[in-house]
Design brief:
- The protein is an alpha/beta fold.
- The chain is built from ten helices and ten strands.
- The strands form two sheets. It has a six-stranded mixed sheet, sandwiched between helices.
- A hairpin with a 3-residue loop joins strand 1 and strand 2 (13-18).
- Helix 1 runs parallel beside helix 3 and helix 6 crosses helix 7.
- The N and C termini lie far apart (37 Å).
Length: 210
Amino acid sequence: DWPVIGLERTTTRWTVTLNRPAKANSLTRAMLDELEAIFADAAQSDVPVLVLTGAGKVFSAGADLDEAKAGLATDGVWERVSGRLAGLNCLTVAALNGTLAGGAFGMALACDMRIAVPGAKFFYPVMQLGYLPQPSDPGRLVALVGPARAKMILLGAAKLTAEEAFAFGLIDRIVPGADLPGAVDSLVAAAETGDAGVRVAIKGMCRTDG
């Protein structure tokens, strides 16, 4: 379990890794606090790229079950984390090494791009669990997949395959696990080497959430 949030920094890229594979990278309050702090630091840096990924075969199962029952499921920290990530001026990529579930959707939806491995599943079971989704998640989900498919995921409790998620527009590319690092390198190369002012301006021009 150490460190449960990995952070590798270079001058052109920060790679943040959820590193609790024995618990399907389920997120505790301490992990979320650390992610919020990392994204706040990234906002103050001039790093061109931030990549978010997971260790093991699951990206994240969402909230840690025990902490969710104790109140984490409805804590405002989720919205703060995704808001920090969405507000970054660097290129943000969710490299989904496996299944994306529950509250972890917020971070993936807040990224600029999402790429995933073929066996990943995608589900956000708020309807069955009796929780509302994070406030900004439905709007970001609708922007990607449209209102009917967003309702299919949130109200219909659909569990999507990677192929379905790609067809919906939830993810942007499906890449074999062994090729995931190289695919990330290819996607971020232009942002890593290009003009910072142009990068920031393009991100601003592409914003759909105000």
